[in-house]
Amino acid sequence: MSNPSIPVSTQSIFKDDILKGKVAFVTGGGSGICKGMAEALARHGAKVTIVSRTLSKLEVAAKEMRASTGGEFFAVAADVRDPKQLQAAVDKHIAHYGRLDILINGAAGNFLSLSQHLSFNAFRSVIEIDLIGTFNTTKCCFPHLKASKGTIINVSATLPYNGQVFQSHACAAKAGVDALSLVWANEWGPLGIRSNVIAPGPIANTVGMSKLAPEGTAPRIPIGRMGEVRDIEHATLYLASEAASFVTGQVLIVDGGNWLQPGLT
Ligand code: HXC
């Protein structure tokens, strides 16, 4: 929607107020793709809590996003692997905002390693952050999502579809996240809760790309360009808004067709 106070390059193709009155809880929302998702929610009227391990980093991110969006951000530290920390974070969120409408499970960890070189603890660490963290967060948020007939967006990846090499830990974790999301769509649809997945492809200028893209290779993308955080923001706004009120149990792949191509990334 056209807003003269916002530069044309950052204006949204969605109406400014589509999430007015909504409140979001975004794990991993202090950096990378999920920071973009948090920002997009705020730009369209939602109040947002961002959650990750380090409060000082979150405070900086919240300040930046208040300045860039004029929106409300609340920073809460928690490690998604620890149910007690998560419960405390959700309690703080509710004490601060009083409700929860949109949960984004975005906290993730990843690195490249062949399976035979992964330590037991390394495999478990990624499963604990991506998969168990998603369960922990969602379980703590459930009563509030039930009260608001809210919506869940899980951030996954296309890696499991073709058994991406060097990524056994993340493949296993993200396949689990996709499965959980379908179960929640089934179990909680009758309660008015929707549950969907966004599976981003190669997104330029992200930690994921710098950590995971093999040096000297370019992802094969039929659409002919790298993804931008903005592409994931658009998918988020669609799924979080009334536009997707009849959409649940879906995995929305936002990758320009990348996963259809053979080979690495
Ligand atoms: C092999 C490694 C490793 C590496 C860590 N480990 N990095 N093993 N290769 N590059 C091992 C450690 O040696 C240790 O095992 C175990 O993993 C846990 O590591 P810690 O550093 O102690 O754990 P922790 O501090 O909890 O860190 C978790 C982490 C880390 C996942 C390992 O990378 C992290 O916090 N990442 C968060 C940021 C991040 O990765 N963002 C990218 C997300 S991108 P031992 O046996 O020594 O104890 C993304 C996109 C996916 O998710 C989809 C892409 C398309």
Question: Would you give an account of this structure?
Answer:
With 265 residues, the protein is α/β, with parallel strands linked by helices. The chain has a single domain, classed as Rossmann fold (3-Layer(aba) Sandwich). It has seven helices and seven strands. The chain has a seven-stranded parallel beta sheet with strand order 3-2-1-4-5-6-7, with helices on both faces. Helix 5 links the parallel strand 5 and strand 6. Helix 3 packs parallel to helix 4. The longest helix has 29 residues. The radius of gyration is 18 Å and the shape is globular. It starts with 22 loop residues before the first strand and ends in an 11-residue tail after the last strand. The model has no long low-confidence stretch (mean pLDDT 94). The site of hexanoyl-coenzyme A has 18 residues, from helix 4 and helix 6.
Spatial order of the strands in the main sheet?
A: 3-2-1-4-5-6-7
CATH architecture: 3-Layer(aba) Sandwich
Cα-to-Cα separation, first versus last residue = 35 Å
Q: Give the beta-strand count.
A: 7
Tell me the Rg in angstroms: 18 Å
Give the ordered list of helices and strands. Answer: EHEHEHEHEHEHHE
Q: How many separate domains make up the residues?
A: 1
The overall pLDDT average reads: 94
* CATH topology call: Rossmann fold
Please give the largest β-sheet.
7 strands, parallel
EC number: 1.3.1.124
Catalytic activity: a (2E,4Z)-dienoyl-CoA + NADPH + H(+) = a 4,5-saturated-(3E)-enoyl-CoA + NADP(+); a (2E,4E)-dienoyl-CoA + NADPH + H(+) = a 4,5-saturated-(3E)-enoyl-CoA + NADP(+)
Keywords: NADP, Oxidoreductase
Protein name: 2,4-dienoyl-CoA reductase [(3E)-enoyl-CoA-producing]
